[in-house]
Design a protein that fits this description.
alpha/beta, TATA box binding Protein, subunit D, domain 2, 4 domains, eight-stranded mixed beta sheet, seven-stranded mixed beta sheet, 22 helices, 22 strands, 21% strand
Length: 716
């Protein structure tokens, strides 16, 4: 490190920009979400995605009567192709939407992501006016090349292969089938779907070597090749991994021109400094960290692995490279995705060597297809068969045991210790001369690193009211016991996929002991259905013991039984006990008969030691009256029916006297939840009220013998 001053400079620079990048509160948007606006800006990109046309605008102004509000960048969604050229100025009217912050642990934080990408928001346009038809001829030309190449790949390859190659070669992921993307992620090879250093290296070095073989001078080959690769990176969207690879490639070609030796560590540091100087927020972007981590892993850990694994053949060299990348990237991978594809090292041994052929034949077939479709199909055939092989590898790995290990999101302390021990390995390895110790100590320390990073401390007790917008979802865990009470939403699509499952994975939960459905309304069950359909391990599904088992009730039962999940019913008096945790059902009485689903909602009294929490589902005032005699004072109340005025009556509150109330509801919901009269009744008994639409997920835990309540978005 000391012999590489550029590396030290990069580290110092990262530490300097870190506070500035991390600091700063979220700014209030200049107009309300969903407002009608007219914006004007310059076109800087375009693509087609999910049958919509996307226009990227920069140098934005929101036009109001007396002022112009400046913005950096907007993404415009249009139903029809506006035929706009890159660099032209356009005015668009439509509805503006701002990126949402994550409301739950593990949930994708759209607000943070688009802040890193310097994108302010989205406009769903319905009226477009060309203000200035002048355009950038160079950028328009390379955009048209990308579009023609995309159409050619559609012509010469099957749909799935075309989608993969367009993502891989052109940076167009908008049409990529979600199942293919998830399969590649499950196999640990999704990195090949991005324009990365691998692609730049393959294409750039191929062009450089061709130019040298036709006796082009080194300086001319280097300059021409760098210019071509720069155009390619611009054409494909300037992803951080592609820009990193371009900068390193430029430094390498400069070294060839000047007759100097290229150093991987120096090249990596050089690229990091330039990228962070332009956008310090990349320090918190997983794409940046994984891209640079992969290169650093090879630069730092490859020498150690070469000594530990002395075999010299293509397979072992590939294994060492893959292991080096995984060792360096594992904390970032777990912090971003919470799970590890166990067989990814082996899959990459098969995938990476074939990538040169995929890229070469894909490009060749795409260019040929612009002239003749048959010739293009013939030349792209190897890419087709290799992609089929990749699919077989991924689907085969999914059938193996433990193919995806859910680890959870490691704490900062664990990550710090992991990299600290990594540094210790490198220092000791260079200083120890004893042969046996030189080989065994790194292995022992690496095992300790893994143990620290992947270890988990189950809390004594934890209850989380998840932010599912207009719906309900409550997670309970205690000393290895895991339970979900409801999981659904009426206004969030695929709430199980995007909110419930990421939360469970971030907590390192590999299996749920119980999933309880309080009643069959979709805003309480849609996420449960998804978990079952995904094949997430559930030991037992509990349904209310009621007489009116309607179609939705029976569909849930059948779905669970078909998935091999044990199904039981729960009614008044039944208990679930685990250590100091006791969950008792207060309602409904067994065989309870009611036309109204809400009336038959399961009510649970959750007790841990001396602390009591009451969960009431969607129970209304009539149901509350039936259980008044059984109620005791509680510490926390999960307010019934999202804060509806027909729930949480005054007699009910006088009997329970909660110190804090949790209300699960969505912002701007059509029901007006929570109703003002409910909030006033809670205020009358001096009960603190927490709304998921304001606070995000609300976590109740125990610290120093007292209940501790934390909110994900704010701490009132």
């Amino acid at each position: 490190m000391i012999k590489r001053p550029m590396c030290l400079l990069a580290l110092a620079f990262a530490l300097i920009v870190l506070p500035g990048a991390y600091g700063g509160e979220r700014k209030e948007p200049p107009c309300p979400d969903g407002a009608r606006v007219t914006v004007q800006g310059d076109v800087c990109g375009r693509e087609e995605k999910n049958d919509k046309y996307l226009i990227y605008l920069k140098h934005i102004s929101i036009l109001e009567e007396n002022r112009k509000i400046p913005l950096k960048k907007l993404i415009i969604y249009l139903e029809e192709n506006p035929q706009l050229k890159i660099g032209s100025t356009v005015r668009v009217s439509g509805t503006i939407k701002w990126p949402e912050p994550a409301g739950n642990p593990g949930q994708f934080d759209a607000a943070a992501y688009y802040k890193i990408m310097r994108t302010d928001g989205f406009v769903y346009g319905d009226e477009t006016t060309l203000v200035d038809g002048g355009y950038n001829r160079y950028l328009e030309a390379i955009t048209q090349i990308r579009e023609r190449m995309g159409r050619s790949l559609d012509r010469v390859l099957p749909e799935n292969d075309s989608q993969v190659l367009k993502a891989m070669l052109l940076g167009e992921k908008g049409q990529l089938d979600s199942q293919i993307k998830e399969r590649y992620q499950s196999g640990g090879i999704s990195h090949i779907l991005a324009i990365s250093g691998l692609h730049i290296s393959i294409i750039g070095m191929a062009i450089f070597n061709i130019l040298r073989k036709i006796r082009c001078p080194v300086w001319a080959a280097g300059v021409l090749c760098t210019a071509l690769m720069g155009s390619y990176v611009l054409m494909t969207g300037q992803s951080v991994s592609a820009v990193r690879a371009l900068l390193m490639f430029s430094l390498m070609t400069a070294g060839k021109i000047l007759g100097r030796t290229y150093d991987l560590g120096t090249g990596t540091a050089f690229a990091a400094i330039l990228i962070l100087a332009d956008n310090p927020y990349y320090l918190f972007y997983s794409g940046f960290l994984l891209s640079f981590g992969a290169v650093l892993g090879i630069a730092v850990f490859m020498p150690v692995l070469k000594e530990l694994l002395p075999w010299k053949n293509p397979v072992s060299e590939g294994l060492k490279a893959s292991l080096s990348v995984q060792i360096m990237s594992l904390p970032v991978l777990l912090s971003s995705f919470y799970e590890f594809p166990l067989y990814s090292v082996l899959l990459n041994l098969c995938v990476i060597p074939l990538m040169s052929l995929v890229v070469f034949t894909g490009l060749l077939g795409g260019f040929a297809g612009m002239i003749n479709g048959t010739a293009g199909s013939f030349l792209a055939a190897p890419a087709h068969y290799i992609l089929e092989f990749y699919q077989l590898l991924c689907s085969g790995s999914e059938k193996l045991p433990f193919h995806n290990l859910i680890i959870g999101k490691p704490s900062f302390c664990r990550i710090f210790l992991y990299y600290g021990i990594s540094l210790l390995i490198l220092v000791l390895w260079k200083k120890i001369s004893h042969k046996v110790l030189r080989k065994t100590l790194p292995v022992i320390l690496f095992c300790i690193m893994l143990f620290i990073l992947t270890g988990r401390n189950d809390p004594e007790f934890e209850l989380v009211s998840l932010d599912v917008s207009q719906g309900d979802g409550i997670f309970i865990q205690s000393q290895g016991f895991h339970m979900l009470v409801d999981a659904g939403s009426s206004d969030v699509k695929e709430v199980g996929k995007y909110r419930i499952l990421p939360f469970l994975k971030s907590r390192g939960i590999r299996k749920l002991d119980y999933v309880l459905m309080t009643h069959a309304d979709a805003d309480h069950t849609s996420g449960i259905r998804e978990l079952i359909q995904f094949g997430y391990p559930i030991r037992c599904l509990l349904l209310p013991d009621i007489a009116n088992r309607d179609e939705a009730y029976m569909e849930m039962r059948t779905l669970a039984e078909d998935a091999g999940i044990e199904v039981g019913v729960i009614g008044e008096g039944m208990k679930l006990e685990q250590g100091g945790l006791c969950i008792q059902c207060l309602h409904p009485v067994r065989g309870y008969d009611s036309v109204d689903r809400n009336d038959g909602s399961v009510v649970l009294a959750v007790q841990y030691d001396q602390f009591r929490i009451l969960l009431t589902g969607d129970l209304g005032e009539e149901g509350e009256e039936r259980i008044l005699d059984e109620l005791l004072p509680v510490d926390i109340l999960k307010v019934g029916h999202h804060g509806s005025g027909t729930s949480t009556s005054k007699p009910f509150l006088e009997k329970t006297m909660p110190k804090a109330a949790l209300i699960s509801c969505g912002a701007g919901n059509s029901y007006g939840h929570p109703h003002q009269e409910t909030l006033e009744r809670l205020e009358e008994i001096k009960c603190r009220t927490f709304l998921t639409m304001q606070s995000g997920a609300i976590t109740v835990g125990i610290q120093d013998g007292r209940l501790k309540l934390e909110t994900f978005l704010q701490n009132p």
